[in-house]
Design goal:
about 400 residues, mainly beta, Porin, 19-stranded antiparallel sheet, 4 helices
Amino acid sequence: MKPLLLTVFLEFCAILLLQAQSPDSTIQLPLIDSTISLQYADSVKQVDLIDYLRILLKVKKSDGTRDNKKVHFTLFPTSTASGKTSFTSFNASFLLGGNATNTNISTVYFYPYIGFGGQYGFDVQSYVWYPQNRWNFIGEYFIHNYPQNTWGLGGDSPDDNETLIEYVQIRFHQKSMKEIWTHFSAGLGYALDYHYNIAVEQTGSDTLNTYLPYYQSKSLSSGLLLPLLYDSRRNSVNPKQGFMAALTFRFNGPYLGSDDTWQSMFLDVRKYFPIFRSRKDNILAVRGYYWTTLSGTVPYLDLPAVRWEPSAGQASRGIQQNRYKSNALMYLGTEYRFGITANGFIGGVVFGSVTSASEYESQHFLYWHPAGGAGVRMKFNKYSDTNIGVDFAISKGFATVYLFIGEAY
């Protein structure tokens, strides 16, 4: 495992080195931030849903009043990664001191939700930048009552293995990073994943008995995080330029209360290419990740699984959450974002991806699962550049609709 760890770390360093040295035109583009005068070069006045609501409700307020606000909110019913319906979901985008020329936009997401089959809970995700990007704090906190199907381990788990697991999960993940060089940060964090009231549906198959015994009613994973981050994006809610590479190591052990000793690694890379300089809303976005356990005994519910990535965003759209699970996952997705109306109110996306789970206890990726779809974007807030997304996605044997605030990644 040490050669694998060294190889991934060297690849991460090489990615950052190539990105720093490449004469990428996207890095030379005008600054993209929350100010409409910098964000759009078109002569057509940009509008958003709030503008139309003001007209409908006959509210007389100048754009200057909204522009001067410290915090911009977006409020909309959405769905979470598994398709659960979320009510009164919203995000808050703001500059935490500094100004848009030297400080990235911070964003906090709130997702209270309820779904079919007894699923309910509350999620919070935060991405906070201190002035001049000196510090960056990334967090994910939730409590879930979460009945969910699982199909066992490996990249070719059959449909007949479908088994219902009921449990409650508490998650607390927090990373704190200090800027070392421009765009590059390193730091420390903590991760807690506590599953309790675990109950496995009794079936005629013993598919899960080896990995999740019927008598196991809880599991606790607690450990340190060592994160590295390169992020040249200006606005993570709706990136129009830049590059992000995040590498996080997790070390769990009894010294922090963990039931088992195990280690994992998550590498997440995202890149954004403006297609036409005259239209800044035409973007080709690319994302890939590699998520693997490194050593130790990992509880079944903490193993890498589709749409359970420890990172913000929508990956593997069109594949059912938890459908593929193993000791390692790989994903590659692309998305083309384009404007439809000249005033920036309506846009569209088309996207595709492939996802693979390794054969269990190996790094052999034999089965690749494609998915794809299309969607519509509606500008909710032109100052924070926040969209409301509605996507239809499909893969073999599964199709669904996603509602969310912001962009998929």
